[in-house]
Amino acid sequence: MPGARRAAGLHRPHPSSPEEPPAQEDLLLAAAYVSDAQYNRNVPFETSPQAVRLYHFYNHWTMRAATYFFIWGDLALALFEEPALFPLPFLATSIAEVLCLTAFSGRLVHFAKVTPQMVFWKDTKNICIVVTIVLTLIDLIIYGSLEAVNIHGVRWSRALRPVFLINFPESRQIRRAFRSIRNTLPDILYVFLLFIFSMLIFSLMALKLFGDRGLKTVEGSPYFTNILDIAFELYVLVTTANSPDVMMPAYEFNWWYSLYFITYIIINTYIFMSVFLAVVYNNYRKHLKNEIRTLAYLKRHKMIEAFNILKVKVGTEFVVKEAQWRQLAKIVAPDISSSHLELLLRISDEGQKGYVDKMNFLRLADLLNIQVVTINIKRHPLEAWMPRVYQSSPSLLVQKVVRHRIFVWVYDVIILINAIFIALDEKNPLISYAEWLFLSLYIIEILLKLYTYEPRAYFGRKQFWNWFDTLIIIAALVATVANTTIQSARKYNSQQILDIVLILRILRLLRIIVSIQRFRVIVTTLINIGPTMLTFGGLVLVVYYVFAIIGMEVFHGKVHFFDPSSTSPDALVCGNPALKDSAFARGRYCRNNFNDLAASLILLTELTVVNQWHVLADGFALVTHQASKLYFIGFHVVVVILIVNIFIAFILEAFFVAYSLEKSEVETAIEKKIQELGVGVQEEEVQDGKLIDNVDAKDSGFSGDDGDNKRKALKGLYFRIASKSPMCPSLSSQSTRPWMLCCSRCLSLK
């Protein structure tokens, strides 16, 4: 059978008889398809038993973790190579890099073993990795040879290291982000060319208006007499970094000239920059929709392949037997609990016929993607140790008070009063004593909650807000005790410790986030989209890393930082006479340099903010050449105009999804089945017992006997649908209404 025929997506021979159960090899192959569908992988792989086993091993988390370890290790070598933050000999860094390249080669060979050769060598990603490995080895040999004869070389291959982060299959999300940029470029290019044309027109106008009037800048240099300098200053004006300084000489000469700059700002800053965002956002949405449609098609195709491998004929239709379905689910999700598996089986086998039909089988990947959180609710330890005391009238009254919404409101007011006291002078003894009072109230609040709610449920793995609240209180306790200790020990005083104390004390005010529902919604949305935001973090890191390496090679050693107490004359010019009387030196920007990777990344972050970025660009142009300004302009175009706008488009789309999207069809099916089984508890009912998400959720009032009976019934094993949806691979999280599955520890859902 040809290699292309054995690739993923093609049929394998079925069992000899329609009633014959699939072999273990067929289960592994079907599991590979389902796993690819679950994680939106589109990797063509060989379907021979050996290749399938290698493919499962290739996708094992340990292999992925090892790959990322070597990728990040390879990127981190720039911290130890000249110019280095932590210098190491060239031999040590070169050996480490060769080890990383060996790991990358092994990973690539492993991938080649599971994919058809024709497919492997046609894949651009694999070609990029191979070429980068070869070029890096060549660069290492050349650089090492030059170092051996004391000739300084350039490590140009270091800028290629992000290729490994981008092109390995594990980084498909970062590749999707780069595809968004690539897809946006054609449309944004026309807008950018029109923007450049507008800027050049205004530059020519400025040259004719101001060039022959003998105007001077604050530094005494000629004002707007060179077309290239004018174009650069006007480009900077688009970012507002040099406003209003750039127009002051003309404005002082005649106030009518301010109309020129106002018109320029309206057209190029407000209109063109808004058009950039509109074009990026429109293209992002369009290509995102197309990509999701493609991924949905590929997911269905893989699930059909898995079904065709496992199907057997029952009556007139092809189905998958319950036993095979269970084995398949356990292979794809080995950590799934038996109760969770039973729930998914009940959803897939609605009639309890002992098999799963095609339509329900195709939903397996989506079912596995819906995260079900298990919460094991038990009796309160105090109820078991001293039931009479815990169930006494005073104890029940305390529990009802803690559960009441007024309890939450009282502590909201306390937090606001505490904020006022923090803003006052803490040297006043009254203020100092008040801090202890507030801290005591917060500790009492935590103790009362632990008395009312079962501690293991209160500090469950998914109880973010409860952990957050408690850690803030503990930090406040540590801060107050440390502050008191420092003030009492007059012989010892550390400003850094005092700073930490003040910061930890202020962190107490963050508890207000827990109390206000809309704040929680916003923060929860940010947490939900956090994993996908990391994708753009990887994209920004790639761009930063490349620009940092280039910057270190070009600008290393041109600017030096001196201690503020230094009396050296060179300290006034950052170690370079070319910076004498420059805005760069007057602003004491000497620490903004490219002398190591950390300093370079910090400088690039400052450029991203764009404030005073032209001063930095002018400074490095003075110590090198005016053409070096193109480096800073290029960084601004790539990062600020392109990537930041794509990031804004993503944030907008993610919030729209989180705020407006309804539950997916599969999530609705799970909720429906929960209710049909008679084991469902809606969010409102569970919040009465404060079991999940928000233990501080507002209750409707004091609970009566029915409420107590309900809470007694809500003991055992709980499940809820977490706010993660498999339907949109580029927007990893969606906000859904949590529902609960309530069952006893021994309930088998029969």
Q: Give the end-to-end Cα distance, rounded to a whole number of Å.
A: 46 Å
Q: Write down the overall geometry.
A: globular
Determine the strand fraction and express it as a percent band: under 5%
Rg from Cα: 32 Å
Main-sheet strand order equals: 4-6-7-5
Secondary structure: number of strands: 7
Q: Spans of 5+ residues with little confidence (pLDDT < 50)?
A: 1-17, 677-718, 723-750
Helix content: 55-70%
> What is the makeup of the main sheet?
4 strands, antiparallel
User: How many helix segments?
Assistant: 32
Give the class from helix and strand content and strand pairing: mainly alpha
**Which whole number gives the mean pLDDT?**
78
What does this structure look like?
With 750 residues, the chain is mainly alpha-helical. The protein contains 32 helices and 7 strands. It has helices at 24-38, 49-58, 61-76, 90-114, 117-122, 124-148, 162-167, 172-210, 227-238, 248-253, 258-310, 322-332, 338-348, 358-361, 364-369, 381-385, 387-390, 393-403, 405-423, 429-452, 455-458, 464-488, 495-507, 512-515, 517-555, 583-586, 597-609, 613-623, 629-660, 665-676, 683-687, 705-713; strands at 312-314, 317-321, 355-357, 372-377, 680-682, 716-721, 739-743. Strands 4-6-7-5 form a 4-stranded antiparallel beta sheet. Strand 1 (312-314) and strand 2 form a beta hairpin. Helix 2 (49-58) runs antiparallel to helix 4 (90-114) and helix 20 packs antiparallel against helix 22 (464-488). The radius of gyration is 32 Å and the shape is globular. The protein starts with 23 loop residues before the first helix and ends in a 7-residue tail after the last strand. Mean pLDDT is 78; it is low at 1-17, 677-718 and 723-750.
